Amino acid sequence: MSYNDLLHELRARGHRLTTQRRLILEVLQKNEQHMSAEEIGEQIKNRHAGIQVDMATIYRNLRWLSEHSLVTETSLGQGHMVYVLSSNHNHHHHLVCNSCQRVTEVRVDLLDELRSRIEAEYGFTARLDHIAFFGLCRTCRGNGA
């Protein structure tokens, strides 16, 4: 989905398109990678020198965008959340090695059975759209980590 399509979608849903939301979405659209709130703020500052957006505003808008399923957030064990535009990434999960910090992407369908079992056993519809699993990668396990 293009940046303009995304803005059109927001308007069609009846949401306000504040300058801050547009700037955050623009940065995430152009980068197409996981970014921290600080990295997003830095990109806004570099691209739009005349516009001041404080970090509290960035965090508040990222929370709003996440609640409206426009941005996906996850923790990759770096001590902060990272964000990606929902329409930009192919759905995947992450395996994060606690020893070497390597992040490996895994297919989203690996959790289909878990999602089905949770729903069948608990009547709960789980959002398993962007999850990180922590442990040891094959290399670190082989090295006795």
Rg is 17 Å
**End-to-end Cα distance:** 42 Å
The overall pLDDT average reads 85
β-strand number:
5
Uncertain runs are none
- Indicate the percent of residues in helices: 40-55%
What's the arrangement of secondary structure elements?
Blueprint: H1 3-12, H2 19-31, H3 37-47, H4 55-67, E1 71-75, E2 81-85, E3 92-97, E4 103-107, H5 112-122, E5 132-135, H6 138-142
Parallel strand pairs: 3-5
Antiparallel strand pairs: 1-2, 3-4
Helix pairs in contact: 2-3, 3-4
How would you briefly describe this protein structure?
With 145 residues, the chain is α+β, with helices and mostly antiparallel strands.
Structure characterization notes:
The protein has 145 residues and is of the alpha+beta class. The chain has six helices and five strands. The strands form two sheets. Strands 4-3-5 form a three-stranded mixed beta sheet, with no helix packed on it. It has a two-stranded antiparallel ribbon with strand order 1-2. Helix 2 crosses helix 3 and helix 3 packs across helix 4. The relative contact order is 0.13. The model has no long low-confidence stretch (mean pLDDT 85).
